[in-house]
From TrEMBL:
GO terms for molecular function: 2-hydroxy-3-oxopropionate reductase activity. It comes from Streptomyces siderophoricus. This is 2-hydroxy-3-oxopropionate reductase. Residues 167-285 form the 3-hydroxyisobutyrate dehydrogenase-like NAD-binding domain. Pfam families: NAD_binding_11 (PF14833), NAD_binding_2 (PF03446). It is an enzyme of class 1 (oxidoreductase). Belongs to the HIBADH-related family.
Length: 301
């Protein structure tokens, strides 16, 4: 599978650059998106646009989905117009969406009845990582299918790890989102603390980034925070969905997540205030409000 015919379903913030990178790597990529007009970049990179899921997957060796949540994965996978009814037996179905582990397990069982192999392969790295082709990819499913998919993964990711059976990739992604949420909240609190202390914020974040407090979150989000530019690389509403996944999964296995619970509630509050379409670094806006900035006079007005 050095090069493949790939059906890529979901050309959103993450999916579009991933599909483009697959085309640039020499794969024959046919893209589909529920809302039209999202395939221009893929077509410019040598790919094609399909008018339906059935058209996209019919001749594909590999089908990839990158959609928001479990209901959207189920919508494109099942039913007479979906992937399982229209893809050929032997097709490899890679789901890059972030969904519940149980949804991935159920999908793999249903696909196996059709002779279709499934890998759950959620990603981390945000829009920048997708554009640069350096995503982290955590994969669940059969090891042989993972090995077969490596040329596909290598076109979009830099850290690609087989984590275990079906659902394991989604479990690791849930843990990833837990860590990112707590990290973003800590960063937001540090920013407000530094500003209220009269410290040069740019200088402070530069030196913090070079020490033990440094993180990919700080490196990726620093410029946006300094500019108060919350153009979404990953939307708060999607992180809200992911925190629901990790909270539910933790309850199922009996894990207690005290810091994660607080972060989940603060993300829920941000979405309830109307910030759901902003980047998840906009958690900063909530800390500003709690610290007395006020919407009409604060830094984010």
């Amino acid at each position: 599978m050095s090069t493949s015919t790939i059906a890529f379903l979901g050309l959103g913030i993450m999916g579009r650059p991933m599909a483009v990178n697959l085309a640039k790597a020499g794969h024959a990529v046919v893209g589909w998106n529920r809302s039209p007009g999202r395939a221009d970049a893929l077509v410019a990179a040598g790919g094609k646009e399909a008018g339906s899921i059935a058209e996209a997957v019919r001749e594909a060796d590999v089908v990839i989905t990158m959609v928001p949540a479990s209901p959207q994965v189920e919508a494109v996978a099942y039913g007479p117009d979906g992937i399982l009814e229209n893809a050929r037996p032997g097709t490899l179905f890679i789901d890059h969406s972030s969904i519940t582990p149980q949804t991935s397990v159920d999908l793999a069982k249903a696909a196996a009845d059709k002779g279709i192999r499934v890998l759950d392969a959620p990603v981390s790295g945000g829009e920048a990582g997708a554009v640069e082709g350096v995503l982290s990819i955590m994969v669940g499913g059969a090891r042989a299918d993972f090995d077969a998919a490596r040329p596909v993964f290598d076109a979009v990711g830099a850290t690609v790890v087989h984590c275990g059976p079906h659902g394991a990739g989604q479990t690791v992604k849930a843990a990833n989102q837990l860590i990112v949420a707590v990290n973003l909240q800590a960063l937001a609190e540090a920013v407000v603390f530094l500003e209220k202390s009269g410290v040069d914020l740019g200088a402070a974040l530069e030196v913090l980034g070079g020490g033990l407090a440094g993180s990919t979150v700080l490196a990726r989000k620093k410029d946006g925070i300094l500019a108060r530019d919350f153009t979404p690389g990953f939307k708060l509403e999607l992180h809200h969905k992911d925190m629901g996944i990790v909270t539910d999964a933790a309850r199922t296995v009996g894990a207690t997540l005290p810091a994660g619970a607080v972060a989940a509630q603060l993300i829920a509050s941000a979405v309830a205030r109307g910030d759901g379409a902003l980047d998840h670094s906009a958690l900063l806006r909530g800390v500003e409000l709690l610290s007395g900035y006020g919407r009409e006079q604060g830094r984010h007005a």
